[in-house]
């Protein structure tokens, strides 16, 4: 289903959840006439450690997906295996960008990218504690770092020079997890819209990341007041209610952090309330 609706390579992407998310609920609903709805061509996909497992157990059994998240990208440059940047690393705050970054990484050769920082980022305390176990390398020069990564040194050095030259000199970046600072690069593509800082103080660090999928945005159509599933005929399906990621139409191509939990709580309460009302009248 991932290959069919999301596209090439998505069936190979590692799952940030348990291995039982195989679409059975969606298939059963569609088989009885539920209306497919929402962003079936997009999903929640974020940067994760290259060494992440194919599936993540629930948080109570080893931490779940959280030990593998790699959300340093707004304060780094991300490059592919050719040593080239490929995305605006900070077009907004992390909470409003992380769920679309996985797609950008997957589109790179081998589905691999590197988050590169210098000593300034480390000194500012921007490196999360979870990076202590990350797949990474450190070197005193960009050339040596490139060799460790298997990237052509000249290409990575050229990328870093180009980036550094585009960092404004009349303003200083103010990295913050909750607001942008409008300190962006000038004259390069892709730009870096916020938190632009030169990469020129060793030691330099690079962390290898891959795309990890959390859930897909396509689902079934519900009545927003009752959470009752709607059919392709335009009529509601008796006795069928949906909540959580089964609900379509909530997100398209991107996702604000925490909204899935809020949606699950909101429509879960509605689904339970109205299903109980129907059951009590049988």
Work out the radius of gyration. Answer: 22 Å
Mean pLDDT: 95
Number of helical regions: 7
Report the helical percentage: 10-25%
- Secondary structure class reads alpha+beta
> What is the ordering of alpha helices and beta strands?
HEHEEHEHEHHEEEH
Terminal-residue CA separation? 36 Å
**Quick one: biggest sheet?**
6 strands, mixed
Any idea what the shape is?
elongated
Q: Residue ranges: pLDDT <50 for 5 or more in a row?
A: none
The fraction of residues assigned to DSSP E strands is: 15-25%
User: Total number of β-strand segments?
Assistant: 8
Summarize the structure.
With 282 residues, the chain is an alpha+beta fold. 25% of the residues lie in helices and 19% in strands.
Summary tags:
282 residues; alpha+beta; 6-stranded mixed sheet; 7 helices; elongated
Commentary on this structure:
The chain is elongated. By secondary structure, the chain is α+β, with helices and mostly antiparallel strands. Helix 5 (142-149) crosses helix 6 (153-166). Strands 1, 2, 3, 4, 5 and 6 form a six-stranded mixed beta sheet that branches. It has helices spanning 2-5, 24-31, 98-106, 119-123, 142-149, 153-166, 259-280, and strands spanning 14-15, 36-49, 77-79, 113-117, 136-139, 204-220, 228-230, 236-241.
């Amino acid at each position: 289903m991932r290959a069919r609706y999301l596209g090439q390579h998505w069936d190979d992407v590692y799952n940030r959840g348990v291995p039982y998310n195989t679409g059975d609920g969606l298939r059963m609903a569609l088989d009885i006439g539920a209306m497919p709805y929402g962003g079936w061509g997009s999903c929640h996909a974020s940067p994760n450690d290259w060494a992440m497992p194919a599936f993540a157990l629930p948080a109570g059994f080893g931490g779940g997906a959280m030990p593998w998240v790699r959300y340093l990208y707004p304060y780094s440059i991300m490059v592919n295996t050719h040593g080239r940047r490929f995305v605006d690393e900070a077009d907004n705050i992390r909470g409003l960008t992380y769920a679309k970054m996985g797609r950008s990484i997957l589109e790179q050769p081998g589905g691999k990218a590197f988050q590169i920082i210098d000593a300034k980022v480390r000194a500012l305390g921007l490196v999360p504690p979870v990076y202590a176990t990350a797949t990474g390398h450190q070197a005193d020069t960009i050339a040596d770092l490139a060799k460790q990564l298997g990237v052509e040194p000249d290409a990575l050095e050229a990328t870093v020079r180009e980036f550094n030259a585009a960092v404004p000199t009349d303003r200083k970046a103010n990295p913050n997890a909750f607001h942008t600072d409008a300190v962006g690069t000038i004259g390069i593509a892709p730009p870096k819209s916020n938190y632009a800082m030169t990469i020129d103080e060793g030691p330099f660090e690079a962390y290898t990341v891959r795309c990890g999928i959390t859930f897909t945005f396509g689902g079934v159509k519900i009545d927003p007041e009752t959470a009752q599933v709607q059919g392709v005929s335009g009529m509601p399906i008796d006795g069928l209610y949906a909540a959580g990621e089964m609900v379509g139409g909530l997100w398209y191509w991107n996702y604000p952090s925490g909204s899935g939990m809020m949606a699950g709580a909101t429509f879960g309460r509605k689904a339970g309330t109205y299903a109980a009302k129907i059951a009590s009248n049988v």
